[in-house]
């Protein structure tokens, strides 16, 4: 397959000025008539007019009023090229597509009888022939025509300017988008939908119409999305001075969707998972995710839509920035410092769980990739989450105000344009009067940098030196790395755990000395000397996770316990606990591999045992923080720490440690369970959610004891739960125990929620990740009447949950998990290449496993690679994995 390179970018031969489209919507065959005006781009070397098209039947092609003869254009695979057109062109194109056969969920498709579109990245070309690239921006006017009874609601981008009857049982609506946009932001929706709507007054006094569209029967689940939308609008006004530029803003929920949501101009289309919520069906996590995804898509209106990407290599320009914005939004919504820290810890957890492995594997790529085969494979945790960390570093370097200045300059320079990551960096640099040329390496080098810390205290001179050394491992195509510009936030703790005032050699500061300073590491190795340090301090390095790096520092167990108890930076408090736990997990895993018996007799005496005890008994601590601090690093995160992964040993020792912690702190867990109940009516606010999280963590530890008394506790919680968070936590605890009632609970749950697709997804996911669920059980579940591979949420809930969320079973020594994986990748490839390619990523890290497993993984990868009619999506992933 063809590789596309960033260095090959050329400007388009033609600009599109206006686009008028007429749709005759029919699931069998939809006719699309497009009229567009184009004009030659004098700056381009491209003389011909290149349009893209896929899976289309071309019915008509006219240029400047005349039908084009076959000789006037060339129809290639995926392209239509018009030879030597004049400088001004009006093209009229009629195409036919088959929405009901479109299982890829790109372009125009049908979900539960309604029409939806998904055009990013390159789906518009499945609707009509078009210069489908993000730097071609045009104004759109769209007429939708459809059967009135089957499709009473007709929506597209912008404003509704006309609607009416067509007589023959059909009706029409005309939508006009006042803003120029790239084709990937086009959308239409048609069908039987209802909406919750509200008028909302912007800061400027202008009134806008907000709507959340869902299928009938889901109107009792839209309030949270609507509230989240209003909070997003307000937040972007207050934090960034950015106002909604439309009179009407719509969110539509669809059950069949490849990802979370899509920021189409004025018509955001969402996976139902990120819209529908009420206490009966949604967990605290669902509520939080909805708020963050609604925010994310809304924030794209400025970072993505008003200012868009020149080409798809620049994807992180909008995604990294918008993830950063949604993270800040969520943090601001929960308000308190401690809650902000909880959000930060959760975001870093995602980074370590998913992005660090990606950056260390065969699909590693820079935040701004240099090449791709299929762009849809690059909507990755690197482009999104690492990209957000890169944006966050500007704010760490320049402060909130400096960051805001950079944002203002970015919009001042580039509003209405399609630009590059470099333009954003330049705006930040210019607004803050700084040279950020070295900072570009964060965009072009892949791999996670390592930061090594050495310290020296001079008792006599009262100086404390911190020496930072950076390195970055080789990644595909990048053997050597240059040193990065790394902001390292540090603090120093005295013997009682208080922050020392910081006096950095050579730096004069007005006013009181700070207790956290950002050191800027730009060399491969650099020393920073602090003066007037009265005692040998304990350093707190990389506070708030100020850069996306692996920190290597030699702490003693005692120092880690000290930091966990005292660090004023909550992130590093949590981090110290994770380091302690990791140390013990790795020691135990080593013991297992040497066939030593595991012993936990002295756990209470260890630094870890004492630190955990202290956290759990500290009634002043935020429960949400406690929950994070008392959760052991995941099996995936542990696996990344070892050279040769033995998933069974890792699972065994993590389980062993959970049981030990359960037994050692039994009373404390029971107290925490009782103390964090949230009686009364349900509210998803952060404080209540934090309590539930800690209570349910306590339950899960207590259930490790596997005693009848605890089974009853879980059963009771299940029966009395007035919300999904408590119900699913109890069910999960039961399913992972030997409780007699576990199968009955599963059956009852299914019967109660049979009509709620999103809850049935949870039911599948929970079983997929259960300790006793093996490959055979997953194959059984696939035979369940409620299972289908065609719905991405359902496929993810069972298959992805098993392959990515149940490592001990997935990596069965007989290789049956890998065979199952290959079967599903191949089956999905024929249905939905994007979803298949995601699943294909599950074996990314195969080279890290013990040889016996490696061999079986390689065989499975080879089987997939050898499959006939493999999509380029899957082909790219497995080819790179095997390379
Ligand atoms: N921009 C979309 C993602 C589109 C993915 C295309 N395969 C959602 C988002 O990031 O907001
Ligand atoms: Zn996005």
UniProtKB/TrEMBL annotation:
InterPro entries linked to this entry: Aminopeptidase_N-like_N (IPR045357), Aminopeptidase_N-like_N_sf (IPR042097), PepN_Ig-like_sf (IPR038438), Peptidase_M1 (IPR001930), Peptidase_M1_dom (IPR014782), Peptidase_M1_pepN (IPR012779), Peptidase_M1_pepN_C (IPR024601), Peptidase_M1_pepN_C_sf (IPR037144)
Entry's family note: Belongs to the peptidase M1 family.
GO MF annotation terms: alanyl aminopeptidase activity; metallopeptidase activity; zinc ion binding
This protein's name: Aminopeptidase N
Matching PANTHER family: PUROMYCIN-SENSITIVE AMINOPEPTIDASE (PTHR46322:SF1)
Aminopeptidase N-like N-terminal domain span: 79-185
Entry's Gene Ontology BP terms: proteolysis
The reaction(s) this protein catalyses: Release of an N-terminal amino acid, Xaa-|-Yaa- from a peptide, amide or arylamide. Xaa is preferably Ala, but may be most amino acids including Pro (slow action). When a terminal hydrophobic residue is followed by a prolyl residue, the two may be released as an intact Xaa-Pro dipeptide
Cofactor(s) listed in the protein's UniProt record: Zn(2+)
EC number of this enzyme: 3.4.11.2
Domain of life of the native organism: Bacteria
Pfam families named among the record's database cross-references: DUF3458, DUF3458_C, Peptidase_M1, Peptidase_M1_N
Domain Peptidase M1 alanyl aminopeptidase Ig-like fold: 447-553
NCBIfam families (UniProt xref): pepN_proteo
